[in-house]
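note to self — DONT lose this again. spent like an hour looking for the file last time. sequence + predicted structure for the chain T wanted, 443 res
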Amino acid sequence: MFSARDMLRYAAVPGLDRAYVIGCLERRVTIYAQQVRALNTVNALFTTGRVQPGDTVVVLGAGFAGLTAAVGAAFLGAEVIVLEKEPIPFSVQAGCSQRWIHPHIYDWPYANSDQASAELPVLDWQAGPCESVVRDLRAEVERAQRDYRLEINCSIEDLQLPGEGNLRYQAHDDVGGLRSPYRRIRYSALIVAVGFGVEPDGSYWREDDLEQPFPGPRNGFVVSGIGDGGLIESVRLRLGGHGEQQNLFPWLMEEFLPSLNRYLIGELRAAESAAEPSPSTYAGDERHRRDEGFSHELAEVYERLLGEHPEVLRAAGSRLRPDSQVRLVGTLPEPYHPHASALNRFLVAVLRHVDGPHFEYIQGRTAASAGGRVIRRTGTADAGTVDPIEDDTRLIVRHGPTSALEAGLAGLAEKLRGVSPMQLDAPRIPQWDSSLFEGYGSG
């Protein structure tokens, strides 16, 4: 359990008084975890007296974390001003109907990871298609704007943070193309919640055709990256709903996970607990060696468990698609990165067992060469081998996002260079007093 002062110490921006960062550097950046960090920070600001009712709180970012912090602080009596560079709130996930989101599934196979409700006191939501979650939360934010002192300003440009509780900015008129005069604000607390960023090769949250039927018997795909994005795309391409089959996420939650929970949950919990790397500040070659060891250890565990439980393979085998084949490319010996979710890792392990002819993992990197796109193998047995990526093969790159701080707030990013992501990852468990938000939504 962290104290409120610990929370603020973790989140404080070095060299910028009264400024706190949430959800921009951490490892675990699920929507639920971002919201928990937001409410932990709001709780800490009010319980320590850093913010009093009537004080001005500025929130940078109108995504899940920023708006959760903003609504929570406004309910507690602050005058809250949200500044967002995009034209609308929730801009990253807006309109995304293909992705299903779940508040707790990242923590599978641990207890309560299948609980569909976020159970948050502010901006609560249920597992479902991202678009419907965003729609419901946007309506709740609009109600909060009517009920509390909550102001949301979008299309912000030229944000300046001179310090000492002051900032100034301009807003851009997307219709007329004009800029407003500079507005100056003095604040008691500045919450930086601009998010983790988006991928330069195409946002994970944009609509695509990966779960639609493809023409012909086998369409080739190369998926580069073994974080959650790369693993999820691989699973969608080989197990995703098509034709008359149920979409992937409902099948996972209603059929596949109950089967795993019946046969394997205890052993998987033990395996994940044993393999989970302890928080550290290792970097570079040492970090890579630790990640390699993690991937080897889990590969051995998955091999044994799936050999003992063929019923799990049969459940997945019944969904294999006839229209795709996938080469997954990553830098570790096995496709099991410690920062990816356990469920995504295990689904890929299942694919490797049940889908050998049409799913392959390659240790290496994708690259462009004079002859076209290639995979440069880096594994012990085949290092230096180069595989061409055929012209009719689609390449999907999931190497993680470009830092939102670097893209829009370079000065803040510089101040945060010495802050460990592991340090900021700690306060993602709810720490607030349940009575703090009593009465929210009752009126």
